[in-house]
Design goal:
mainly beta, about 180 residues, 3-stranded antiparallel sheet, about 30% strand, 4-stranded antiparallel sheet
Amino acid sequence: LASFVGQAVTNNRPVPPTFVSAATNVTGTTITITFNRTMANPAGAQNQFKYKINGGADQAFSAAALNADPTKIDLTTAGTAIAYGDVVNVSYTKGNVTAADTGVLASFVGQAVTNNRPVPPTFSASTTNVTGTTITITFSRAMADPTGKHAQFKYKINGGADQPFSGAALNPDYSNM
């Protein structure tokens, strides 16, 4: 074999996947990260990811799973709940998360997360029926059935003590309770 120097070497190592975007689900309990490549199952790697709310402390995830779309990883939040209007960022410390072709995910810090928590409904008005036995509350949005949640509401008469409700039901126009 003759001596040689400075010959090019073809690098066949898989290209690392890169972060594309991230978003919460509507309940704020999952952050889904989209990558530019098909990912391998990240089960057990949730401790390599963290999220921050409004620039606060790092928050943990309780699970990591491959989404039905294999370019996405779903991370289940375990720290502070994400609320409407929160600014959320996600980070990753290089570990064992890989693309399906074994390209190793590089660390990333402070990537923006689209917060998909919906605007909470607000109180609009309330009225009683003619006998004074029912209070109908109108909200800014259609409401889910409140059956069984009457203990979360109270009313006062002439500034007196809080009074409990004995039941709650969805009004036929679906924005009242």
